[in-house]
Design goal:
3 domains, two-stranded antiparallel sheet, mainly alpha, 4% strand, 4-stranded parallel beta sheet, Transcription Regulator spoIIAA
């Protein structure tokens, strides 16, 4: 491949690259995966539309138009795009404040921002959002999504429900006596199906089974349920109509903060989803091409009556597990939804809102990253403050404010941690003696050990370097030692990056050792879940101790693929 071809390839969609060696076998796999994901996306798209304060068809139109464009133009082979839970709260807020016209403009502005980010390589800026901020607003969004579904889950009869969390909860509590027994029964049954059916089989999406059974039961038994038909009048049959939104009466300036938030959220969610897809499929996505595709999709989505879209982690994972090989599967997913719109849209009016509420409860639980709260609470007080501020503001204020304040606090924390790494101390005999155990020049590193060093602060914005250095583990020996002697500072994002590496190594049959950490990183590691996860016996004070521990690990080593262990047994130690 010539250098010019290589340069061109870096800006080509994965669909174009995939079609170079496409085959009938790949198409059959993509077809099956695409239809499966399309069925999974059907109830989710409608539910996201409803909970966002728009219509169920808006969610479906987004899944069709944006899903097709993201797969056709994107930088990931298996990414599935469409409406997601991350946007529910902010879209509802935009609609309440600026109306549907304002939402259309915000979405298109966010799309333009994403195109610029991808075209200029600014997609890497997403890395500079620290983990406590990401977890904080993910927790907050999940809680808000769940709170918006309480009314439909219990079939409550209430006046207009406020968009703010506390007033909303007050209205729900005041009207708790209006519970609809039929709605609760349908919701609990739907919840049980969605949660437990995957434990029996993953061939049939639980949400589709719940949708079919509960819709049929509601019609046949004439259950007193609120449905898509009773609330929205049903879903129009046919292809979504193209219309450029009327922007003549819309003031752009007040919409800029919301557009920036949508763009950043879309970038974060899509690239995170692409990383998950890479881990599951063994591929490597192109971040800049992916962001351009996300931008184009968000520019065109409002023209077909849609809402903001991004990469959907759960649907992408389903796509990979269903055997998808190329972006053709994502295109099939969009065409499957379009076929349903063309043929079966009138039936959708019988779907109970209680079933869709149950589906979104599961979505909220899965996206909440609730297990991460325990990890955050074991970090420094400053990290906990950043998380708590982001979480609280997401729930009690709005996502735009939450992200802005969270990033501002994290930036101050970054400056503080960098300042703490500077020290002025005399060189003493004790200092020199203590340093001998850390130096590598006089050490003989056996072939069953690889040593990687982290030099400088390992904070948010720098952790991608570790992921890049360890992307392909196939050539790694049984033991990887991370030398932290020159790692001057560590934060929650860096800690998570090391934890992810430890998990990948463990799953591949390898062992991670940490050695030589200085005071601040060592204290953070010791107090975190990482220490228990990799084993405290694998956290060593210096390289000498790490090599001794590596020998112990290797003596019990059972083999990492191929004949590595056999080959190493012949090597001198």
């Amino acid at each position: 491949m010539t250098p010019s071809t290589t340069k061109i390839d870096t800006w080509l969609p994965k669909l174009v690259l995939s079609l170079r060696d496409y085959s009938a076998q790949k198409f059959s796999q993509d077809l099956a995966a695409g239809v499966t994901v399309g069925l999974v996306a059907l109830p989710l798209a409608m539910a996201f539309g409803i909970s966002s304060g728009v219509t169920p068809q808006a969610g479906l139109y987004t899944a069709v138009v944006a899903g097709l464009l993201i797969s056709a133009l994107g930088g990931s082979r298996v990414q599935i795009g469409g409406p997601t839970g991350a946007f529910v709260v902010i879209v509802a807020g935009i609609v309440a404040k600026f109306g549907l016209g304002g939402l259309a403009v915000v979405t298109m502005m966010a799309g333009a921002m994403l195109v610029v980010m991808g075209a200029t390589g600014l997609g890497t800026a997403v890395r500079f959002i620290p983990r406590p901020v990401t977890i904080g607003f993910t927790n907050g969004i999940a809680l808000l999504i769940a709170s918006t579904e309480i009314k439909d889950f219990f079939g409550l009869r209430t006046p207009a429900v406020p968009s703010e969390f506390l007033p909303r909860m007050r209205v729900l509590v005041e009207n708790a006596g209006s519970v609809n027994v039929a709605a609760v029964t349908v919701a609990i049954f739907s919840l049980a199906v969605v949660v437990f059916l995957p434990r029996v089989t993953r061939r049939i999406p639980g949400s589709i089974v719940a949708l079919v059974i509960c819709t049929g039961a509601g019609v046949l038994l004439h259950l007193p349920l609120e449905t898509i038909g009773t609330k929205f009048g049903g879903i129009p049959r046919g292809f979504p109509h193209f219309a450029i939104p009327d922007l003549s009466h819309v003031k752009i300036t007040p919409l800029i903060p919301a557009a920036f938030t949508v763009a950043m959220l879309a970038a974060i969610e899509s690239l995170l989803s692409a990383v998950v897809a890479d881990g599951m499929s063994g591929d490597r996505h192109n971040s800049n091409v992916e962001l351009i595709a996300q931008g184009v999709a968000n520019i065109f989505s409002p023209m077909f009556g849609g809402i903001p879209a991004t990469g959907a982690i759960a649907r992408t994972a389903t796509n990979v597990r269903s055997g998808a090989k190329t972006p053709v599967a994502g295109i099939v997913h969009a065409l499957t939804l379009l076929a349903i719109l063309m043929v079966a849209a009138p039936i959708a009016r019988f779907i109970p809102l209680a079933t869709l509420a149950a589906v979104l409860f599961v979505v909220a639980y899965n996206m909440g990253e609730w297990h991460e709260i325990r990890v955050i609470l074991r970090l420094s007080r400053a990290d906990i403050l950043v998380w708590a501020a982001t979480f609280s503001l997401t729930v009690l204020a709005d996502l735009t404010v939450a992200v802005e304040v969270g990033i501002a606090l994290a930036a101050l924390l970054y400056i503080y941690r960098i300042s703490e790494t500077t020290s002025v101390t005399p060189v003493t005999e004790d200092y020199l003696q203590a340093g001998y155990a850390h130096i590598l020049q006089d050490k003989q590193v056996p072939p069953y050990v690889m040593i990687l060093r982290i030099h400088g602060p390992f904070l948010f914005g720098t952790t991608e370097k570790l992921a890049e250095a360890t992307r392909d583990l196939t050539g790694f020996p049984p033991v990887l030692a991370l030398r932290l002697r020159n790692m001057t500072a560590l934060d929650a994002t860096g800690l998570h990056a090391i934890a992810v590496l430890a998990k990948r190594l463990r799953e591949s049959g390898r062992t991670l050792l940490l050695c030589g950490a200085r005071d601040q990183p060592n204290a953070l590691i010791a107090e975190s879940a990482l220490a228990d996860d990799i084993g405290r016996e694998n956290i060593l004070p210096h390289v000498d101790a790490a090599l001794a521990r590596a020998r112990e690990v290797y003596e019990d080593f059972g083999g990492v693929g191929g004949d590595f262990a056999a080959d190493m047994s012949k090597a001198p130690v």
